Amino acid sequence: MSSKLAGIACLACLVGVPFLLLACVVDSQSSSAGGFAGPSSGFSATGSSSGSEDGGTASAYPMTATVDTDQTMGAQPGQGVGVFATYDSGGSWNVWWTCDSAVDTANPPCAFDVKIAAQQGSITNLSSQGLAQNDTVTQTSASSIEGVTTTTTNAASVTFTTQAGAKIFLSATVGGQYDGRFVFFVEQGQIRDGYGGTVTDPIYLQPSNP
User: Fold this and answer.
1) Which residues contact 47 (CB under 8 A, 6 or more apart)?
2) Percent of the chain scored above 90 by pLDDT?
3) How far apart (Å, rounded) are the C-alpha atoms in residues 168 and 159?
4) Superfamily of domain covering 12-207
């Protein structure tokens, strides 16, 4: 896993309105930052970043970021490594994750451990999609869930409901490493990720509207 892409290769992201496509960067250069690869000009680590400048450990200071309500985002399975989160009004969340197995066949599958906790109320209506035979998604408490998967060319995902407008806490590791560059969401009509600025892992995600 040490040579997995930290960015998303060959992704097309659909945001907000039809036909507004944001093309994501394709780059497989090696990076000295923990062995992950990514665009050479994209990532700027800071003291609060959870990127592999910190050795792949969890951020000590998770940031709170705003997720645009009722926006959409797409990622092609197998084309890059990432964890994606979207929110629809009324409390509906969709979190999914992909690997780069279709373009980086020499590397092993992505071992994901994704943990989510609602900061107000409970998590209900939990459903999972795209799981392989030994993958698991578990509701670990009334307000928290965990997905443990070995992901290749599929997109593993969870959908669930929280109290409308409730903030969630998202923690995700790939091969046991935390890296904010893996985390993607839509903020103010733009794809937000750790290449364009600091994104911590873990992170709090707050919907823009209930």
Assistant:
1) none
2) 66
3) 13
4) Carmovirus coat protein (2.60.40.1780)
